[in-house]
Design goal:
single chain; alpha+beta; 5-stranded antiparallel beta sheet; 11 helices
Length: about 325
């Protein structure tokens, strides 16, 4: 809080407050490095290129594939591997295999604190990244936000060359519903963001601080590789903001608070093999200490053999996801 203890004529007082706040922000952010998962999603466009694409959008109902690629956005007819991936994930003919795969992933993802006590061997869930042939969608350039971010989903999908009946369209719809729905968690604060600035604004305002810190999972590894728990540290227990990248034609992060949660940093010893040497790695995790408001159908309860309100639910932080504290 900034306290001014001397009289300043209006409207100069408001102007001075804004300038003082901006000076504090600029002074802090000069030495601040954005997390990799946000940095790699920054728009590659300069102002002139963005203006050209904006004019193209205003003159036509669709974005050209050249402009789509230049802006780092995802277009429907552009990536064959993208279509294959989403058809695979929405293939209801092999539901039993999909459910088995989901359960195996959940068994590696969810755990309780007792799992981290002592030098135990564990397996982490595989890195949750898109195939390398599928580019990460970028944030919209500020000049394109008023055009694309204001469209309804049907308009946007058409503009980006996606069929409204495509699996990617269904996944994008799920992303928007995730942004707008409330999970039933008391005192949860949720918002979705289409820019790095917006994410930082929510983190700063929600946590009431400028000196933001974060944990993120940047570990790349063989999913069958065993790790040994060495040490566990609680890095935040009095407030945090988790941000999750969503699947959409342009980059969106869903950020939310879940009260009564611990943010952990776990030191793991990477086992040696023919190609790797033993090495210590840090992997972030989150423990939700009060699960009484969680949906009884949540898969974590099946994995841990518990019910809402019966003990904590912890999970490893997926790759590209991050938690501010």
């Amino acid at each position: 809080m900034i306290i001014i203890d001397f009289a300043i004529p209006e409207p100069m007082a408001d102007t001075l407050l804004v300038l003082m706040f901006l000076a504090l922000c600029v002074g802090y952010l000069e030495g601040f490095q954005l997390p990799r998962s946000i940095r790699e999603r920054l728009s590659p466009l300069d102002d002139a290129s963005a203006l050209h694409i904006k004019q193209e959008l205003q003159a036509s109902s669709r974005i050209s594939h050249e402009s789509c690629k230049a802006a780092g956005l995802l277009c429907g007819d552009e990536h064959h591997s993208l279509r294959q991936l989403f058809h695979h994930h929405h293939d209801h003919h092999d539901r039993s295999a999909m459910e088995s795969s989901t359960r195996d992933l959940a068994q590696r993802t969810f755990f309780q604190l007792k799992t981290l006590v002592g030098a135990k061997n564990i397996q982490l869930p595989p890195p949750l990244r898109w195939d390398n042939s599928i580019p990460v969608s970028k944030f919209l350039h500020p000049l394109l936000e008023p055009v694309l971010a204001s469209m309804n989903l049907s308009q946007l999908l058409s503009t980006m060359h996606f069929s409204s009946q495509s699996p990617f369209a269904a996944t994008s719809k799920d992303s928007l519903e995730m942004c707008s729905s409330h999970g039933g968690i008391k005192h949860e604060i949720k918002a979705c963001h289409v820019s790095a600035k917006s994410i930082l604004d929510q983190a700063s305002s929600t946590l009431h601080k400028l000196d933001l810190k974060y944990v993120a999972n940047t570990l790349e590894f063989d999913p069958n590789e065993p790790f040994q728990v060495v040490e566990t540290r609680v890095v935040a227990a009095d407030g945090s903001l988790a941000c999750h990248p969503m699947t959409f034609p342009f980059a969106i992060f869903m950020c939310h608070t879940i009260p009564n949660s611990l943010v952990l940093e776990v030191d793991l010893l990477r086992s040696s093999s023919k190609n790797t040497k033993p090495a210590m790695v840090k992997v972030p995790a989150v423990c939700h200490m009060d699960t009484s408001d969680f949906a009884p159908s949540h898969i974590s309860f099946k994995i841990l053999n518990t019910r809402p309100g019966e003990g904590e639910v912890c999970h490893w932080l997926p790759t590209s996801h991050l938690v501010w504290y």
